[in-house]
Amino acid sequence: MFGSPPPRMLPPPPPHNLFTIQLLALLIFFLSPLVSSSYFNLTLPHQHPYPEAVALEVRRKVNASLSTRRQLLSNSFKDQQAQCLTGNPIDDCWKCDANWANNRQRLADCGIGFGQAALGGKGGQIYIVSDSSDHDAVNPTPGTLRHAVIQDEPLWIVFAGNMQIKLKHELIVNSFKTIDGRGAIVEITGGGCITLQYVSNVIIHNVYIYNCVPSGNTNIRSSPTHVGWRGISDGDGISIFGSRNIWIDHCGLSHCTDGLIDAIMGSTAITISNNFFTHHNDVMLLGHEDQYLPDSGMQVTIAFNHFGVGLVQRMPRCRRGYIHVVNNDFTEWKMYAIGGSANPTINSQGNRYIAPSDPDAKEVTKRVDTGEKEWSDWNWRTDGDILVNGAFFVPSGEGLGPQYAMASSVEPKSSGLIDQITMNAGVLGGPRDNSVSISYSGGTTTPDSANGNAGGGSRGGDADFFGMIFGSGAPPTPTSCTAIVLSHLIILILYVFTNYAALL
């Protein structure tokens, strides 16, 4: 429930990299009493050094897609492409090509945000899954999904037709794989579901993932040459463990035992986009535990998703790192939408938050088990968000300033743009919510903290306009000199010990 890691099986990173990370963690531990923990944000070798630039590029791509759509629709001759464009930069990159099925790998060029470099199986062969069975986790049958994902070479994995794949145990995916469900209705369910552990460059696209339950205490093959023992898994829909360059797009997720998507233990460079989340308690966990310092380098883009019926909390729940939440539609929560601890940076831009009728659950944000004195300098900001039915976002740190702008200062059709951008969230070609007929047998609704809402915050002078509140567009405070010096110091230490650890 709190992100406990699955038992390790795959080969660990090279020893000098582990040594570097461990030494850096010790250095940060001893220096942390002297300097605010918000400055230590360079701990993983593959994280982006300028996360604000990545967030700005996402917004630029959204604006460019919306502008292109407006220009084409304004012409007297409205061709088919103009009608297809939605302003969603991912979909507009490939979906309007009538010949996309003959150029599937173009999808790998359409990513945005921190996970945009995920190659998946680009450049590799097409592997067609023709067998929906999962009889043997040690010796998978050729033609099955399990046989495809464990191969060493890059593969673009597609499906011969509609199928439901009932896993016996965790599906352990090797690096440089794309699971591409376009053109078929593909359901993945059963034991363990999808595990990405110590891998990179994985794309999961257009599949349903639901009713995932714990499994394990068995041997599972992770590559053509390696079989290892796995303990009991958590029952996550997708578990991301110590991995990077991951992109999860256009999936439908619901009804799992633990999280729908969990990313922990130094994972970074992740984009979660265009998904349809429903019927679940703990939706998304980002970060292993408060004391795990390498997760300060976690960087995740959460864009164009629909958070829908039956959701309770953790959309996401963050520990450390930089989380960009942009242009999502939050239509339901029972406790809170975005929560966190251990000083994560939350950059919320252009989302729509529709509060529940419960008067005690109107706040979008929650600082978990943390007093206001501690979280007041955390950088949580709202920029252009639309807050409906009394919803309110409590900013802090650099996110403070003019907290809310009057509705008249924001383009009046912003809420309509959210509908437009997220209209195709979920599995393309299938029902957006396939969980109506699914019998849910796992999980209970429990609060993140026994103390209830620790985030707190008064609405104060929020500007309310027909039930909508628009977040501030105030720019963030420039990075301090201290942060820059410390960042360079950490980069230097990483360089020295990565290259010369063997000599020490």
Automatic annotation (TrEMBL):
UniProt key word Membrane: yes
SMART domains, per database record: Amb_all
Region (Disordered): 436-457
InterPro entries: AmbAllergen, Pec_lyase, Pectin_lyas_fold, Pectin_lyase_fold/virulence, PEL
Matching Pfam families: Pectate_lyase_4
Name of the protein this chain belongs to: Pectate lyase
Family per similarity comment: Belongs to the polysaccharide lyase 1 family.
Listed Polar residues bias regions: 436-447
Organism: Cinchona calisaya
Keywords: Calcium, Lyase, Membrane, Metal-binding, Signal, Transmembrane, Transmembrane helix
